[in-house]
Specification:
alpha+beta; Elongation Factor Tu (Ef-tu), domain 3; 3 helices; 238 residues; Helix Hairpins; 6-stranded antiparallel barrel; 35% strand
């Protein structure tokens, strides 16, 4: 077990003037968000549950799109009729049967219908809510067949590919701690040790506790997930 040898490592390091310091840490994800609906309607598909994995681009929630598709087709018909009207007015203008005003008005009407069609197409695309990244479901807030309103919360998700550890260390460590410094991270739940580097050191010291926050990236492909606890080891004299 890794932790059984920790005491021995500390003694050996001290003999060589390379003391190892430790700090407790927490695994967090840099991407964690709540997906909300941009349109109202009935949820017809919501298959993912708490803890389920998903891939980037995968449809997580599907909303009944019948009314939005019908609205799109309705606007498309009106757009096509306006286009025919414009073409007719252009032809009539050649024979001085209509003036420039009628032609210009038809052009603006067609532009208006094209814009309305774009909006209708956006609403149809919003019927399928896709995963913005690969990750897992933290909490399922809504349920299948539920009628929802715009901006209603549906799923809380977290990325599984953007993990890091955050540790709180004594402010006095700033004298030797640097960005890019090699560190070891021991994940408690997995009894796993991985290598990393200091990614960021906060610019402000907590005046009450005289501590400062540091961050390190986790690039391991092991089953590390947000919320796990860890111990971070630093070599004071590198």
């Amino acid at each position: 077990m890794i932790r059984k040898y920790l005491f021995l490592i500390l003694i050996v390091s001290a003999l060589f003037g390379n003391e190892i310091q430790e700090a407790r840490a927490l695994v967090e994800s840099t991407n964690r968000t709540i997906l909300s609906s941009e349109i109202g309607g009935k949820i017809i598909s919501l298959s993912k549950n708490n803890g389920d994995y998903f891939k980037k681009g995968q449809v997580l929630v599907e909303i009944d799109c019948a009314i939005y598709k019908a609205e799109k087709e309705k606007i498309k018909v009106k757009r096509d009729l306006t286009k025919i009207k414009l073409e007719k007015n252009i032809q009539l203008q050649k024979y001085n049967s209509v003036g420039k005003f009628e032609v210009q008005t038809s052009k603006l009407e067609l532009k208006e219908q094209n814009l309305a069609l774009n909006i209708a197409e956006i609403n149809v695309s919003r019927c399928h809510i896709k995963a913005p990244y690969t990750g897992r479901v933290v909490q399922r807030i809504a349920n299948q067949y539920q009628n929802i309103k715009p901006q209603e919360e549906l799923l809380e998700i977290v990325s599984s590919n953007s993990l890091e550890v955050r540790a709180v260390v004594p402010a006095t460590w700033i004298s030797w701690l640097t960005i890019g410094q090699n560190i070891s991270i021991i994940i408690d739940e997995l009894d796993l040790q991985i290598k990393s580097k200091v990614l960021q050191i906060d610019s402000v010291v907590d005046p009450k506790s005289q501590t400062i926050n540091i961050r390190a990236k986790i690039n391991s492909k092991e089953k590390i997930i947000a919320g796990m606890s860890a111990t971070v080891q630093f070599k004071e004299n590198q």
